[in-house]
Write a structure and sequence with these properties.
mainly alpha, two-stranded antiparallel ribbon, 4% strand, 5 strands, globular, 3-stranded antiparallel beta sheet
């Protein structure tokens, strides 16, 4: 496996405008696949080799169904978009068993405890993930321009499935959001004085509109306290907060609050949906706010509320 070949893979991913996280994941699985077959070039590997690899992941590595599917998607991209040939029939591989899990949800008093103990620097992103139903990266990738005070709305750009959507802006957070915007302006002015001030922009917009990359409204709402080098362009920008840093802060706060649940940042989004349904909001409204394509995805929260089959009372209760 040559470095040159992986550069071709990365360039193909960037031409198709895959996110940096997806690029990293796909490159990992492609390199893993090549090493699994003793560094043979993928042109020498056929559908049977893919079946062997996917079966190994399920049987020996015992990966989750979603992980196995991600590996398959990476290999499909490799064959179709890099090698220029069809992957072939790979339906014979042993499939990882999909899990049927009810999402973990915080109770309202647990949300209050979490907000009390969370490090102040991370309180606002936690409040927005819960108060607006944002995914972790949707929250961190918010730009100044995505916050609409007039309509009390947050515009989520390029969410899961490359879809935009509008969700609610919690009114109690408006003063904190305005304060945060002033802090971002301070960072931006300091960067401009130091000869920087540009920010990464999607779809080559920085090249088409170079002045916009240095504009304030394109700056990340949760910008980092220090500048960093973009791994793709090599330019120094002020990027958003690191997702792993926020995840660790939330994990610490959950432990400190004494919440005995296997929870994470995504639990805040689950709690947003569940509490809206508990407050009587229509499931279609919740589906739209969450950005779910299929209503069945949203309906899983009715099981948390016992509004599914378990909402039925036993006939024995009436005897």
């Amino acid at each position: 496996m040559s470095i040159r070949f992986m550069e071709v893979v990365r360039n193909s991913l960037r031409v198709k405008r895959y996110s940096y996280c997806t690029e990293q994941a796909y490159c990992y699985w492609i390199k893993y696949y090549i090493r699994f077959h003793n560094l043979k070039h993928p042109r020498e590997l056929e559908a049977d080799h893919v079946v062997q690899f996917l079966t190994y992941l399920a049987v020996k590595r015992q990966v989750a169904s979603a992980t196995q599917n991600q590996a398959l998607n990476a290999l499909n991209f490799l064959y179709v978009h890099v090698l220029g040939k069809k992957l072939g029939d790979v339906s014979r591989f042993a499939r990882a068993k999909p899990s049927q899990k009810i999402p973990v949800v915080f109770e309202r008093d647990e949300i209050r405890k979490l907000l009390e103990v969370i490090t102040p620097a991370y309180r606002l992103p936690v409040q927005l993930m819960y108060g607006a139903g944002l995914r972790l990266m949707e929250c961190l990738r918010l730009r100044i321009k995505d916050i609409d005070f007039y309509r009390k709305a947050i515009i989520v750009r390029n969410g899961k499935g490359a879809k935009d959507r509008v969700t609610v802006l919690p009114e109690p957070l408006i003063p904190a959001i305005e304060l945060r915007i002033r802090e971002v302006r301070h960072y931006h002015c300091a960067d401009q004085e130091a000869g920087f001030g540009t920010v990464w922009m999607p779809d080559a917009l920085a090249r088409k509109y170079p002045e916009e990359a240095a504009s304030f409204h394109w700056q990340y709402f949760f910008c980092s306290c220090k500048r960093s080098v973009d791994p793709r362009s090599g330019r120094e920008h002020r990027h958003h907060l690191d997702d792993s840093t926020l995840q660790r802060a939330v994990k610490r706060a959950i432990k400190q609050a004494g919440i005995a649940k296997k929870a994470s940042c995504h639990t805040l989004r689950h709690s947003f949906a569940t509490h809206l349904l508990d407050d009587g909001y229509d499931i279609r409204t919740v589906q739209e706010l969450l950005g779910h394509k299929d209503l069945k995805t949203t309906q899983i929260y009715t099981h948390v509320l016992n509004r599914g089959g378990f909402a039925v009372k036993s006939p024995l209760d009436r005897i």
